[in-house]
Amino acid sequence: MADYDYIIVGAGSAGCILAARLSEDPSVRVLLIEAGGSDKSFWFDMPAGYARSYFNPATNWMFKSQPEPNMAGRELYCPRGKVQGGSGSINAMIWVRGQRSDFDDWKAAGNPDWGFDDVLPWFRKIENHPAGDTEWHGASGPVGITPMKGQTHPICDRFLTAARESQLPVTEDMNGARFEGAGIYETNIARGRRQSSSKTYLTPALGRPNLDLRLVAQAEQVLFDAEGRATGVALRAKDGSRHDVHARAEVILSAGAIGSPMLLQQSGIGAGGDLQRLGIDTRRNLPAVGQNLQDHLCASYYYRATVPTLNDQLRPLWGQAMAGLRYLTTRRGPLALSVNQAGGFFRTESATDGPNIQLYFNPMSYRIPESTKARLLPEPYPGFLLCFNSCRPDSRGSVGLSRPEPGAAPDIRLNFLATGVLFCATWRIVRPKATWTARSSGA
């Protein structure tokens, strides 16, 4: 007899929702597997706590790409969540759906029910939005939303003024009727707490007797029967013991763009030649597994400001203490918000059918730690960050196994800048310093 009806590998943003929804049927048993640990920590609740996860190997896989040939051989940092809730437990909580053309293009490519008008009701169903139940927002979903408008640092208003002076569009709601333009972001935060799918979907569902969650459990292989049907998963527990779990109905891989293709390859599904070189028996020769990896190159520009920024509040110890006390007593203040407070979607001169770059305006500039024990530290002067990435890059990369052993670091080849050019934007605020960093956008 099978142990479960459904086995879900990966308790990230999608896996948590899948587990919660499937277990609504009391007649089925569901197992959710997560290689990371629990998210029952104050630091996962407090929005600003994500700074502790950015370089924390306990909660972040901290992947790196192979040297990028079009970026002078740089190895780019690729953070991925290693905790219940996945990357949704460690990201900056910006709540943006995507533009209409993203979904309509999926539908035009032969994916029925994936057009914007098809998916909008499902986006509305997720939300508990203070605007209420409107054409664009929902008010009865589990995920609380906070529009940061009216709560952001005053320098964000200067960003919006600069956009207007540059004759760029401004929008009141990037998830509303007008997607394009500069504005203040919405966040999946409610009452000063992160609203990950783990917190909002999975945690309430864990009281059901038909839903099991196994943490610190590494899925090493998908199991198959003689006909080639997936029947279960081989697990490695924290103590090193290995055992198999079985599914009656389905094995669902929800381990993300990195983890899912790696698990398929470890199970013998992928390009036969590559598997053979690693000493893995080929079960199905599917060369497309791990190919066409797509991500957004994000470049961060550091600016020194002539007006106060969050650096002035959060650099001194007394300022940190004041912000912490305010958060603990009111669940408000800078620690209750995302640091990416303003931004928007814009067109470069080459764009013809919609916005093709996204900007993030961060009212604080900080040093990137070079140690896994370091924390993000504000610069010792007023500063801010202006980051941007392309929205729909043409470059395609790949992800695969670097070694046959489960748990080995992946071979990530982002292949950034293989097509097109890196866009630049000029803003009427201050001149940027001559330093910048590049990374995978991650979430």
TrEMBL record:
UniProt entry keywords in alphabetical sequence: FAD, Flavoprotein
Residues that hold FAD according to the record: 83
Co-factor requirement: FAD
Matching InterPro entries: FAD/NAD-bd_sf, GMC_OxRdtase, GMC_OxRdtase_N
One function term, GO molecular function aspect: oxidoreductase activity, acting on CH-OH group of donors
Pfam families linked to this entry: GMC_oxred_N
Domain Glucose-methanol-choline oxidoreductase N-terminal: 256-270
Domain of life of the native organism: Bacteria
SUPFAM superfamilies: FAD-linked reductases, C-terminal domain, FAD/NAD(P)-binding domain
Family indicated by similarity: Belongs to the GMC oxidoreductase family.
Protein name per the record: Choline dehydrogenase
Species of the source: Paracoccus homiensis
